[in-house]
Amino acid sequence: MTEEWNVSRSYHDLDFSEEDIVQLCLLRSLEIDELVDAGLLKSSSRFDDELLNTITFESAELGVLIQTGNHYPACQLDVTYDNRSLPRLTMDGLRIACRILVADGEKHNNYEAWSQREQDEMFDYHKTALEIMRTINQHLADFRSRAREAVTKAGFSSGAASDNSMKKFG
Question: Of the candidates 62, 47, 68, 74, which has an alpha carbon nearest to the alpha carbon of residue 170?
């Protein structure tokens, strides 16, 4: 079941200069570097231009599309979920955790803060994409651990609930 949860507003009316777009691209690139350094993206994808606009997570249980676009982090991102096999309550917990991250990030990642960065001498933004990817990774690890425990308690081989299906994305 695919669910899209968009918090972004219509940003096409906002005024971003070419210099703004370049600076925002640099911030997104730094966040991509952190995703690679954290092991959440393949190192070979570090210079993939598509990552500047879209980060994709794929596993056997779940697909997630994080759309950052040209204006992130001055504007918040969008997240789309494709639940392939997670139990509803597990998926609900993941969605709620990601919604909280996006809502918290929007307090800092907004056009008003971006447009005042020169007066404030900095732009204190949140790396929402990085935090979402960490959250997804942790939720899946927890789910898989619980699944292994359930299989072991039932007397089956623990190989049935393997972590081999988790893929790095990018």
Answer: 47
Q: Which of 74, 75, 57 is CA-nearest to residue 66?
A: 57
Whether the full predicted model's pTM is greater than 0.85, yes or no, is: no
Buried (b) or exposed (e) across 36-53, using 16+ Cβ within 10 A? beeebbeeebeeeeebbe
The total of other beta-carbon atoms located within 10 Å of residue 113's CB is 18
Q: Are 151 and 158 a contacting pair, CB within 8 Å? A: yes
* pLDDT tens by residue, 31-60: 999 999 999 999 988 889 899 999 999 999
Angle between helices 88-106 and 128-153 in degrees, nearest 10:
160
Q: Where are the domains of the chain?
A: 2-165
Q: Are 36 and 133 in contact (CB under 8 A)?
A: no
Q: Which amino acid is at 30?
A: L
How many Å apart are CA 142 and CA 89, to the nearest integer?
13
- According to DSSP, residue 40 is labeled S
Confidence of residue 104 (pLDDT cuts 50, 70, 90): very high
